[in-house]
């Protein structure tokens, strides 16, 4: 099997194409290939499969074997992968995901995709849509008790469920303990991604993410998008915001009509062939 390692600002994935992969169970394969000591090492496995409703379809399997609805960094890598291999010839096209149809636009230099802008759709704010065991139309300043301490959180569904905790300094957050505690909190029946957000000013924020099913990641595209949405809804920022993660910056635009646009890089690391 020919495999490709790619990353979007450090959020890394193993890619391959499977014409018969629409309904396959990739749980064991994802766990094996994504293992950082005994496999290739990645946050997730991404499979290109045919679509009946879009130009192509993306399946993403987290490192723990669970299937995710969407991935912002992953979909930028996906767009680069299918274009540069001739699987899709258009510079703006559609991708089927479990979160709906996404539409990337490629920024190309000398035949290579350097940046990708993705229409990420519109956020859903009601607790029942996230889903979250609360009866509120928008989750803002919501008290959640974890390990004897109460945190005010904001939550939103943007492809996948995300919860934001606004902090003074993201470098001081106990990411590997507080992240999983919030991810698996009983309030979230399907779990939640957790973003710790430091507001620098009205056009800049910093984000650190504990990703549902993958753990601590260097970047999370949907997490950066949801962080901008909730930073704006809380009155902290405007609608055009640069989001700093460990290895670079994503630009997020939260349009007046509620549509979220994400622009950022995608990079290929290497190709290999393995007997699976």
TrEMBL record:
<feature type="site" description="Could be important to modulate the pK values of the two catalytic cysteine residues">
    <location>
        <position position="211"/>
    </location>
</feature>
<feature type="site" description="Could be important to modulate the pK values of the two catalytic cysteine residues">
    <location>
        <position position="162"/>
    </location>
</feature>
<dbReference type="GO" id="GO:0009089">
    <property type="term" value="P:lysine biosynthetic process via diaminopimelate"/>
</dbReference>
<feature type="binding site">
    <location>
        <begin position="221"/>
        <end position="222"/>
    </location>
    <ligand>
        <name>substrate</name>
    </ligand>
</feature>
<keyword id="KW-0028">Amino-acid biosynthesis</keyword>
<feature type="binding site">
    <location>
        <position position="193"/>
    </location>
    <ligand>
        <name>substrate</name>
    </ligand>
</feature>
<feature type="active site">
    <location>
        <position position="71"/>
    </location>
</feature>
<protein>
    <recommendedName>
        <fullName>Diaminopimelate epimerase</fullName>
        <ecNumber>5.1.1.7</ecNumber>
    </recommendedName>
</protein>
<dbReference type="InterPro" id="IPR018510">
    <property type="entry name" value="DAP_epimerase_AS"/>
</dbReference>
<dbReference type="Pfam" id="PF01678">
    <property type="entry name" value="DAP_epimerase"/>
</dbReference>
<feature type="binding site">
    <location>
        <position position="11"/>
    </location>
    <ligand>
        <name>substrate</name>
    </ligand>
</feature>
<keyword id="KW-0413">Isomerase</keyword>
<feature type="binding site">
    <location>
        <begin position="72"/>
        <end position="73"/>
    </location>
    <ligand>
        <name>substrate</name>
    </ligand>
</feature>
<comment type="similarity">
    <text>Belongs to the diaminopimelate epimerase family.</text>
</comment>
<dbReference type="GO" id="GO:0008837">
    <property type="term" value="F:diaminopimelate epimerase activity"/>
</dbReference>
<comment type="function">
    <text>Catalyzes the stereoinversion of LL-2,6-diaminopimelate (L,L-DAP) to meso-diaminopimelate (meso-DAP), a precursor of L-lysine and an essential component of the bacterial peptidoglycan.</text>
</comment>
<dbReference type="InterPro" id="IPR001653">
    <property type="entry name" value="DAP_epimerase_DapF"/>
</dbReference>
<keyword id="KW-0457">Lysine biosynthesis</keyword>
<dbReference type="GO" id="GO:0005829">
    <property type="term" value="C:cytosol"/>
</dbReference>
<feature type="binding site">
    <location>
        <position position="62"/>
    </location>
    <ligand>
        <name>substrate</name>
    </ligand>
</feature>
<comment type="subunit">
    <text>Homodimer.</text>
</comment>
<feature type="binding site">
    <location>
        <begin position="211"/>
        <end position="212"/>
    </location>
    <ligand>
        <name>substrate</name>
    </ligand>
</feature>
<feature type="active site" description="Proton donor">
    <location>
        <position position="71"/>
    </location>
</feature>
<keyword id="KW-0963">Cytoplasm</keyword>
<feature type="active site" description="Proton acceptor">
    <location>
        <position position="220"/>
    </location>
</feature>
<comment type="pathway">
    <text>Amino-acid biosynthesis; L-lysine biosynthesis via DAP pathway; DL-2,6-diaminopimelate from LL-2,6-diaminopimelate: step 1/1.</text>
</comment>
């Amino acid at each position: 099997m020919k495999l490709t390692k790619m990353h979007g600002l450090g959020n890394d994935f193993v890619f391959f194409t499977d014409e018969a992969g629409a309904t396959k169970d990739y749980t064991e394969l994802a766990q094996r290939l994504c293992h950082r000591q005994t496999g290739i090492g990645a946050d997730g496995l991404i499979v290109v499969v045919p679509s009946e409703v879009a130009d192509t379809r993306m399946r993403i399997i987290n490192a723990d074997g669970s299937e995710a609805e969407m991935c912002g960094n992953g979909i930028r890598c996906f767009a680069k992968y299918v274009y540069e291999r001739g699987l899709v010839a258009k510079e703006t096209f559609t991708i089927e995901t479990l979160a709906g149809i996404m539409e990337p636009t490629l920024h190309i230099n000398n035949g290579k995709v350097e940046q990708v802008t993705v229409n990420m759709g519109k956020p859903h704010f009601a607790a029942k849509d996230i889903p979250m065991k609360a009866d509120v139309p928008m989750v803002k300043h919501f008290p959640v008790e974890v390990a004897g301490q109460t945190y005010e959180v904001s939550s939103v569904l943007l492809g996948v469920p995300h919860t934001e905790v606004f902090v003074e300094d993201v470098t001081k957050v106990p990411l590997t303990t507080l992240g999983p505690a919030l991810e698996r909190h009983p309030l979230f029946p399907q779990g939640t991604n957790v973003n710790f957000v430091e507001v620098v000013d009205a056009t800049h924020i910093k984000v650190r993410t504990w990703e549902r099913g993958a753990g601590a990641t260097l970047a999370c595209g949907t997490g950066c998008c949801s962080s901008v949405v909730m930073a704006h809804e809380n009155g902290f920022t405007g609608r055009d915001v640069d989001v700093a993660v460990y290895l670079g910056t994503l630009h997020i635009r939260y349009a007046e009509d509620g549509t979220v646009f994400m622009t950022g890089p995608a990079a290929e690391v290497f190709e290999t062939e393995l007997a699976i």
